[in-house]
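Researcher: Following up on the earlier apo prediction. This time include the ligand. It's magnesium ion, with the SMILES given after the sequence.
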Amino acid sequence: MFIDKVKIYVKAGNGGDGATSFRREKYVPNGGPDGGDGGRGGNVVLRVDDSLNNLVDFRFGKHFRAQDGSKGEPKNCAGKCGDDLIIKVPRGTVVRDFKTGKVIVDMYGVEGGDFILLHGGFGGKGNQHFANSRRQAPAFSQSGQRTVEREVTLELKTIADVGLVGFPNVGKSTLLASITEAKPKIANYHFTTLSPNLGVLKSFDRSCVIADIPGLIEGASAGVGLGHEFLRHIERTRLIVHIVDISASEGRNPITDFETINKELAEYSEILAKRPQIIVLNKIDALPPDSTNISDFRRAISNMPDYKESPILEVSAFAHKGLDDLVKTIFECLGELPEIPALEREEFDFDSRDTSSLECQKLADGLFEVRGGLINELVRKVVLSDDDSLNYFQKRLRNDGIIDRLKKLGMVDGDTIVIGDMEFEYKE
Ligand SMILES: Nc1nc2c(ncn2[C@@H]2O[C@H](COP(=O)(O)OP(=O)(O)OP(=O)(O)O)[C@@H](O)[C@H]2O)c(=O)[nH]1
Ligand SMILES: [Mg+2]
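Model: Understood. Below is the ligand-bound prediction.
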């Protein structure tokens, strides 16, 4: 089974809570605070694995959660950090935010092969940090930072230098098998190839990767046949080898075939349609002796401004004719073509540590609730058992516009505000 697009759920680990504890020693009746910090939550890390060429491993396991950090402990012992969760992906994987479709990372361009997709939450501070001259026995500590789950899509865009395109049955797979060590399925019916095949073409000290994809037909862009989804796998190629059955063994006109495929390429992507092409006229062994197909084709191409400079080669993939010239031409063309760059990250906020969402709601008369990352962070940072902090907290509620939003919902003096598992009264 070939899977090249999946949606997965990812969550970095929560930070561990800080500990509240006091030293206990013989002959020391009131030991000072010694609560250790919570551990950091594990990161979600994407790692390139060059032995993978498919996303089939994601078929069942779609939820990925890194380990939470452990709680802090007495005696100033910090909690253990959560383990990172490593997700292995093929090199050509493009990762997008599911909701916006924006690119988070193109693993093709990741140096070293590891990318931190989501960072684990910070550990909370233990009570030892909150002691000062006025407050010698702080009975509170900070909670760890909570992380939220995100949805991302993984999309494989195979990495190859050359892409083979053409109608079904024109001999794409036969050509791949003739010039590389790949052993694709070859048969005399349409859509023999159901998923991309890769082969490495070697000639003296040079080598390149060739991708053979399922055949296209008219209307592929509208989903006819196998559709044009597989063109994703030749998007990164620098060169297209466009194969035509010049013997017209199935009764179609080779010139129209050529135009139809180019039209489908353009429907998929203007950029792909402009990629340089080598035109391969295959099945010359099957041409009737008096056929004018080759000269007709060459004449037609010489009148197509976009293609008249394209090399045209006459071959028989089946009978191994003309293949040396083709291989030579492929390397000559590739020598002049730059690498296709990796996709750039698109600017947008993508973080496991939600510190900005805010939801205000009226639960009942005189009862209002505030939820979301913004308020969670505020609660976490402000130590509520401390009077100074409580004042600061109310000030922040005012400054961040939360009080105004609640007032718009009808809150008045004396009403109750619920935040997480605490409640307090609103005073004008
Ligand atoms: N006579 C002749 N037949 C060929 C040649 N190349 C391929 N064929 C035959 O054409 C048929 C289709 O070949 P494939 O290589 O499977 O064609 P394809 O383009 O990969 O087809 P799909 O995977 O269905 O898109 C097979 O029966 C091949 O033996 C050739 O040069 N000459
Ligand atoms: Mg094939």
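Model: Residues 172-173, 192-193, 212 surround magnesium ion (ligand 2) (CB under 6 Å).
Researcher: Noted. I'll compare it with the apo version next.
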